[in-house]
Specification:
Blueprint: H1 2-33, H2 37-49, H3 58-80, H4 82-85, H5 89-95, H6 102-119, H7 124-134, H8 141-155, H9 173-193, H10 203-226, H11 232-249, H12 253-266, H13 269-274, H14 276-284, H15 292-309, H16 314-319, H17 322-336, H18 342-359, H19 364-379, H20 387-404, H21 407-411, H22 416-420, H23 425-442, H24 449-458, H25 460-463, H26 476-490, H27 498-512, H28 520-541, E1 545-546, E2 551-552, H29 554-569, H30 574-590, H31 594-610, H32 615-631, H33 637-652, H34 657-667, H35 682-707, H36 714-728, H37 736-751, H38 764-779, H39 781-788
Antiparallel strand pairs: 1-2
Helix pairs in contact: 1-2, 1-3, 2-6, 3-6, 5-6, 6-7, 6-8, 7-9, 8-9, 8-10, 9-10, 9-11, 10-12, 12-15, 14-17, 15-18, 17-18, 18-19, 18-20, 20-23, 23-26, 24-27, 26-28, 27-28, 28-29, 28-30, 29-30, 30-31, 30-32, 31-32, 32-33, 32-34, 33-34, 34-35, 34-36, 35-36, 36-37, 38-39
């Protein structure tokens, strides 16, 4: 209620003040109309006396001031016209100094002084100096600030700057600068003094009021930045030292922070660069409670943008050794401000790194130096838990990736992984994903084992559990995305030199093997295919490559692959391991390494026997084995017989009869391979087909026993197509009568069931097969003659 009452009282006092201004302004206007100077001065002084109040807050006082300001503009017009009041401006300047109270006197003096300068009857510097010194008579902070603000406003267009009509022999730019600096100094003192007024209990209110008044002080610096003729030399020798002296000596947190911010914003970038040492020295002298990081960050951001604006200015940064000065200043600030939170230090490092990457993109040693300083600071904290600080560290690590568009450059930074070590597990993964995305986006190729080692240390959060983190807690979709990213990364590792490529594969394998059972099924396959790509490269070069340390031979690579897939098979993930064994067997066959190919097949059969129990998985696996074995021609008779015997045996032992049938007739291709060097054992191929036919017949009988009908004839038609294939390929053991008999069997099965009941049934597959036979008959020639022997 007290606060509410205070607001109501303030509104009442403001209304009274405005009413007083309006009342006296009315009589002043009457006097103006009558050109009565005496009455004008009397009522204008009474009107301005309303500004003597101490009851209003800065915001309310501003409302009152603006009412008086509007009236003063009309008063100034009156003073300019000597014909209306009949006094020379010099005498008028003397006359208004006799006003009874100092505040109205100074407002009137400033108004007449403005006219005095415009008349050019006296040097503007003398009038300005007189006004700025006489304003010291008003020492109440709020009243004094608004009075000096009025002085600055009415004198702004009358400063003797270059190009101004008031510049002359007696008036120089230095006079204009001196006036603004003096006014700024006095205003800052008044502004700072507000905090010392009243009891400490109203400190928060005072801070709020001071915040409302700060622009009045800052306008002086804006004017300094706009004065024509303030060159670098004057700025360096006069303006900046005087302003900084006031900033440092005022020992006020709010004033120091705001004024440093103003300096950085209002003066040109090139001036900041040439006075960098002076500016940074002032930053280290600010009060410990001043948020220096924001000041330095703003300064570095401006300099960074200046460097990016034109390549022509970069040499200036080198001349002044900008990086060394900024780096030293930031180090001092962080060391002296012990209470600075870790996020503040990280923000400074990010700004310094941004500056460095723009100004000195070729100086990786500078980048590494910043990262090293970051490591030192992070090492002083037991554990980085601040989310904002973590975000800044990610920004710090991301900056080199974005700048260089090449992870290889980042890998040369020795402190890069040391910074990553301070991230928590979740953020470490985020950063690792950013690194991989950068590699993919820029199509970067990591081509040496040393760089791969560093890279996998950086992304270790994705390839193994950190600090005992349980992968079961991870979201499955996120986990799969992470592991797929690692898998894609492995394909980006390449080197034309086989010896180096083998080293890369060994480094990757070393890291991946620590990944745990959930990760291996994602990461082992790309590693295997990368190694197989190297095997085929060696094979195309026609021999082994031997280096000083590592022998890059297909045989050695296959040994590594065998050990790698063996780990995968124990995960357990037997179906995937079996596929990889078969891929390796085919590659070994291409290299004419029969023992290696046989060993891979042996491992595949062991997995099939011992690990794959699901019937559907067994069907898929046996077809993969048969298909791979059919394509391989490296085996001698004995080894091939052993493997084909195993394949046909497992085919016949599948759980379901249809699966048995299909696997067995697929085995017929193991004995008749349609290429120049392929095996051509027509008799054993026929035996497979007959065995498949018996199994199909048994399947029909079982279907009849369980369902009361023989069911579709699809298996018979599939076997018929195999007969036709081998007949067409020239297998002498497949005769037209065999095909004809099978067609008749299918027709019989389609026309009646086991109870002798005749039924109409059509099988599209069988119809298409017969159409094919007729088509071949019509072709004529050798093929046509061959098919003519088949009677439909």
């Amino acid at each position: 209620m007290r606060r509410l009452a205070g607001v109501e009282d303030e509104e009442k006092w403001l209304a009274e003040g405005i009413a007083g201004i309006q009342h006296n302004a009315f009589f002043m206007h009457r006097a103006l109309d009558a050109n009565n100077l005496r009455e004008v001065l009397k009522y204008s002084a009474l009107m301005l006396s309303e500004l003597r109040t101490s009851k209003l807050s800065p915001q309310k006082y501003y409302d009152l001031y603006m009412r008086a300001f509007d009236e003063l503009r009309q008063l100034e017009v009156f003073f300019k016209d000597e014909s209306r009041h009949g006094l020379p401006v010099v005498d008028l300047y003397e006359l208004v100094q006799h006003a009874g109270n100092i505040l109205p006197r100074m407002y009137l003096l400033c108004t007449v002084g403005s006219v005095y300068i415009k008349s050019k009857q006296a040097p503007s510097k003398d009038v300005l100096k007189d006004l700025v010194e006489m304003c010291r008579g008003v020492q109440h902070p709020i009243r004094g600030l608004f009075l000096r603000s009025y002085l600055a406003q009415v004198s702004r267009d009358k400063l003797p700057e270059i190009g101004s009509e008031y510049e002359g022999d007696a008036n120089t730019v230095m006079d204009a600068v001196e006036f603004v600096l003096q006014n700024f100094t006095e205003m800052n003192k008044l502004w700072v003094r507000i905090q010392h007024q009243g009891p400490g209990t109203v400190r928060e209110k005072q801070e709020k009021e001071r915040n409302e008044l700060r622009d009045l002080v800052g306008k002086n610096l804006h004017v300094l930045g706009q004065i024509e003729g303030v060159d670098l030399e004057m700025y360096k020798e006069t303006v900046l030292p005087r302003v900084l002296e006031q900033v440092v000596n005022c020992k006020d947190e709010l004033a120091q922070y705001y004024l440093m911010e103003c300096i950085i914003q209002v003066f040109p970038d090139e001036y900041h660069l040439q006075t960098l040492e002076t500016l940074l020295a002032a930053c280290t002298q600010l009060m410990p409670t001043v948020d220096t990081k924001i000041v330095l960050t703003q300064l570095m951001d401006r300099l960074s943008n200046y460097a990016a604006s034109s390549p022509d200015v970069l040499h200036e940064f080198l001349q002044v050794e900008a990086f060394a000065k900024l780096s030293n200043a930031i180090g001092k600030v962080i060391d002296t401000q012990i209470e600075m939170p870790i996020v503040g230090a990280m923000t400074l490092f990010v700004s310094l790194l941004t500056f460095t990457l723009r100004v000195h993109p070729d100086r990786l040693d500078y980048v590494d130096q910043i990262l090293g300083a970051c490591v030192v600071k992070l090492s002083s904290v037991p554990k980085l838990e601040d989310a904002r600080a973590m975000k800044q560290v990610v920004a710090l690590l991301s900056a080199p990736l974005e700048k260089y568009n090449d992870i290889v450059t980042a890998l040369t930074l020795s402190n890069y992984p040391r910074v990553m070590d301070h991230l928590d597990d979740g953020t470490n993964k985020v950063m690792a994903m950013l690194i991989i995305q950068s590699i993919m986006k820029n199509n970067s190729c990591i081509s040496t084992a040393d760089k791969v080692e560093v890279l996998f240390e950086l992304i270790k959060g994705l390839i193994k559990d950190l600090d005992g983190t349980d992968t079961e807690e991870l979201d499955e979709e996120d986990f799969q995305e992470e592991q797929n990213s690692v898998a894609r990364l492995i394909h980006m590792l390449d080197n034309e030199e086989p010896e180096e490529m083998l080293k890369i594969i060994c480094v990757v394998r070393k890291h991946l093997m620590t990944g745990g059972t959930r990760r291996l099924p994602f990461t082992v396959p790309p590693l295997v295919f990368s190694a197989l790509r190297l095997v085929r490269q060696l094979d195309s070069q026609g021999g082994d490559i031997t280096g000083e340390e590592v022998s890059a031979t297909p045989r050695k690579i296959f040994q590594i692959l065998n050990q790698t897939i063996e780990v995968l098979s124990s995960v357990p993930c037997p179906e995937l391991a079996l596929r990889l064994y078969l891929q390796c067997a085919e590659a070994a066959s291409d290299c004419d390494l029969e023992p290696a190919a046989y060993e891979f097949f042996t491992q595949a059969f062991i997995l099939y026997e011992e690990e794959i129990a699901d019937s559907k998985a067994q069907v898929t696996a046996i077809h993969l084995i048969i298909g791979t074995l059919q394509r391989i021609n490296v085996f001698g008779v004995e080894n091939r017989d052993t493997l084909t015997h195993k394949a046909t045996g497992y085919s016949a032992r599948l759980l379901k009869k249809p699966d048995q049938c299909r696997a067995v007739y697929a085995c017929s291709h193991l004995f008749w391979v349609d290429d120049i060097d392929g095996i051509k054992d027509g008799e054993r191929a026929l035996l497979c087909l007959r065995r498949a036919l018996r199994i199909a017949n048994a399947a029909q009988q079982m279907a009849n026993a369980t369902r009361g009908s023989s069911g579709p004839v699809t298996l018979f038609v599939e076997i018929l197509n195999k007969y036709i294939y081998f007949y067409e390929k020239g297998n002498p053991h497949i005769t037209p009568s065999d095909i004809q008999s099978l067609i008749e069997l299918i027709n019989t099965e389609m026309q009646s069931d086991d109870n002798g009941n005749r039924r109409i049934h059509s099988d599209p597959f069988f119809t298409s097969t017969l159409r094919y036979i007729r088509f071949q008959k019509q072709k004529g020639g050798v093929i046509g003659d061959k098919y003519d022997l088949i009677k439909l």
